[in-house]
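Workshop exercise sheet. Pairs work together: one partner reads the sequence aloud, the other fills in the structure field after running the prediction. Swap roles for the next sheet.
Pair: D.N. / O.F.
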Amino acid sequence: MRTKYFGVSSARGVAVFAVSAAVGSAVACGSSFGTDCSATRTCTAEGGQESAAGHTASGAAGQSGVAATSEGGVPTGGAGNSGLGATGMAGAAGAAGGVPAQVECTTAKDCDDRKQCTGVETCVDGACVAGTPPCKNPDEANCTATCTEGAAKPTCSVMANDKDQDGHGSALCTAAPGDDCDDTEKTVYTGAPEICDRLDNDCNDLIDLYDGLPFSGSYENLGDASSTQRYASDVAWSEEAHVFGVVWRDDKPNDTPTVMFTAIAPDGKIKATARAINESAPIPLTPINVPKYRPRIAAGNGGFAVVWPTANAIGFRLVPATGVLTTPVKTIPTSSLARPDIAFSGAASAWGIAWGDRMATVNAGGLASQEKTVLAGSVDLVRIAAVGDGFGVARGPIVVLVAADLSGPKSIVIEGTNPELPAIGSASDHFGVVARPAPGAPAGSDSTFTAYDAKGNKLCGPVAAAAPGLLITDVVPTARGYTLSFDFRYGFQEIGLDCKVGPLLVKDTGVDTNYLTAFDGGGSGGYLVTALNAATDMPEYRLFGSNFCD
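Structure field:
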């Protein structure tokens, strides 16, 4: 049985009564509250308010108060005797006796919700305690457990979650695995069409180009097709101007070699008409395709700077992204004629130029420093990149870190097998170096890649960067790490910031289809590669999206 409490209003206050019994057996109680009601009866007072009198063993009720009893008729307080009701003396006496706390249950049967899937409820210390559901979810992140009521017992089932609502459950639900290897992407599930988005859409552990998608873009001629002697080219991406700057050498018949420039937008539109930029500093006449006389270009300050070898000097010119020339050619006198390379340091707001064993800098206003020897021994090929607030110059088996004022060269020995012909690329706080095997290196020697922080501390590597025989020409930093490009192929390879090497992406296989390649990008504009077509000896370019297939 349960005890119920009722509040009864009177002229003087509220009296609280306990009723124990099967509620509903009403008896006549006389005016106000009768005194002949048993402890197991419900009384209805005049005015329709429900109340109860005490057991016959209790004291008589006052004019407005009444004694309260607990279940079983044991008196718990005195009756009022002054008509003060709940606030009178009798009310105080009743309160002193105490009113028992409300009780939810006396047995487990009182708590039973008659549902199998919620478990068996129990009664503990007068309170109902929920049961333990019989069906447990083994992995709430990836699975859903369902309980179905049965005739005798419930039935439990588990199914994979489908958070992305593509109709395919998560493969991570080990109790009931689905066929969706990425339940956060609607375009990913077993059997989905592979699209160019860097996701494994069909769940076969391959993405994009690795899963059969073709390279994007098409080959386009570089420069004036009527000129039949166009040679080695170079490219740089300007994130500020959102264009690629491209330079190449144009050897017109019976004329001095000319450095040409154009700007190409990521959508392939020509943003600056091709034009010569070295009219006062010609490239020396050389045999066809000698790469040491190719021009080089770098992006910085919203535009570009171009360098090239000229008689007893290095030619230098600032070129706006529009191609409209506003500053003259400058020359840096040198006694060492070799192929130069250039990089821009945003931290130093200066251009760094390296050639042979020498280096010089040019400030934002175009004022050049004196050349300075920074490398031991004369070498032909050097590459340069901005590193920290200075530059890193790669040549032979070493990298030399040089401050923007050309002070404090620090040499780093490149690890690898017979490292020669280096390539270097840098981000704001790290750089990567590729050392290609020297001519005559043992068969099977690989190009190796090593990553360093801006102070020259090794981060990872060396790792084999490409299949034997593929020569790496450029190292381009990206948000994911680095992308390498190869000579004699339209081919690329990605290497993570942890030096994890990705598969080769080779467009042309079996024959050498191009050479003297140059490659840059990695920003919002994707990539652009230039090269000489082996069949025509003419320069061409091709644009790729950031995934190479878009």
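Discussion prompt: Residues 1-101 have pLDDT under 50 and may be disordered. What would you look at next?
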